[in-house]
Amino acid sequence: SRVEKSGYKHFMAKEIAEQPTVLGEAVDHYISKDGKGVSFAAEGLDFTQFDRITMVACGTAFYACLTAKYWFEQLARLPVEVDIASEFRYREPPVAPRTLAIFVSQSGETADTLAALRYMEGKAAKILSVVNVPESSIARESDVALPILAGIEVGVASTKAFTCQLNVLALLALNAAHARGEISDAALGDHLAALRNLPGLMNHALGASDTIEALSRELAKAQDILFLGRGAMYPIALEGALKLKEISYIHAEGYASGELKHGPIALIDENVPVIVMAPRDALFDKTVSNMQEVMARGGKVLLITDAEGAKQAGDDVWRSVILPEIPDLLAPILYAIPAQLLAYHTAVAKGTDVDQPRNLAKSVTVE
Ligand code: G6P
């Protein structure tokens, strides 16, 4: 079936806008009818059988894995190692017994990820893949393949596949936490209720598109842009920088906020916008103090936070994007949306080929 742009200027814009719908459908698909439970028993997944997780992917899917590491470790107390497929496969790491190997891939055809999967198969690890294409090589060669249900993604820069990967990984982490006795029935129910509520909040975030379009016209003049985030927002900073460089060709880097002092602060002046992804979580105050270090050196801060966060951050920030309040677990999924919109509108302002950026392929099936 041919996929159409249905009135949007680019597939990327359409795919960004589709996220509340496809993610909401995927949530309904995976959680029980009463909305209170999530189980992968029918697929043969029992998290009490594992002592550790190894996650492997490339590109945007790698950043989904980095985000999920925070969830599996914090909620389920399962140690997680995350690696880039092209590094993992040639490093040939030792594999401990009771390891679950998780491979995340939109296409299910990325050559390095497939090779890493085959390596882990040879080590007798249980192989779980999180894919968008259920008939793909990676899905077929897995013990368990979970579809993310994003629908066909055409834009080379991944958007809805990323948030739908995060959705399935969050459900897995919640299931793992519950199965391992780390969270109660009631806590699981609360998390799942929040997840069912997420599409509404994502719609709210999409409402920031006009604000972001206006400030993106200014970002389009920059040569370098930094993204900062802490905790599970650190991978979202990395993803924001990747998205921006892929389609606008502006040099961008994501950093853990706490690393600011260890290098990137040397770059700060009035020409380097610093985009701070800061939901009001336990680390918010630390991020605000990193932000003040940037502003004290003349840096222009674009703060992405909620209304109360913006109030606490004061008047010195260059621009703010206000998102609804969100439970900590789901903040990375919600904050991915302004990161995508920033990349999109900046690229449109620069007049680049948003859906087909130079030199990039949707799926890298050769080394
Ligand atoms: C390419 C695409 C990215 C994608 C990466 C991994 O670089 O341009 O959008 O994140 O491959 O692809 P996969 O299909 O394995 O998720």
Automatic annotation (TrEMBL):
Localization per Swiss-Prot or TrEMBL: Cytoplasm
EC number: 2.6.1.16
GO BP, one annotated term: fructose 6-phosphate metabolic process
SIS domain: residues covered: 41-182, 215-357
A GO cellular component annotation in the UniProt record: cytosol
Reactions listed under catalytic activity: D-fructose 6-phosphate + L-glutamine = D-glucosamine 6-phosphate + L-glutamate
Keywords (A to Z) from UniProt: Aminotransferase, Cytoplasm, Glutamine amidotransferase, Repeat, Transferase
Enzyme class at the top of the EC tree: transferase
Active-site residues from the entry: 362 (for fru-6p isomerization activity)
Major localization listed first in the record, in broad terms: cytoplasm
MF term (GO), any: carbohydrate derivative binding
Tree of life domain: Bacteria
Subunit structure: Homodimer.
Biological role stated in the UniProt entry: Catalyzes the first step in hexosamine metabolism, converting fructose-6P into glucosamine-6P using glutamine as a nitrogen source.
Name the UniProt record assigns to this protein: Glutamine--fructose-6-phosphate aminotransferase [isomerizing]
Organism, as annotated: Pseudoruegeria aquimaris
Gene: nodM
Residues of the full protein shown: 241 to 607 of 607
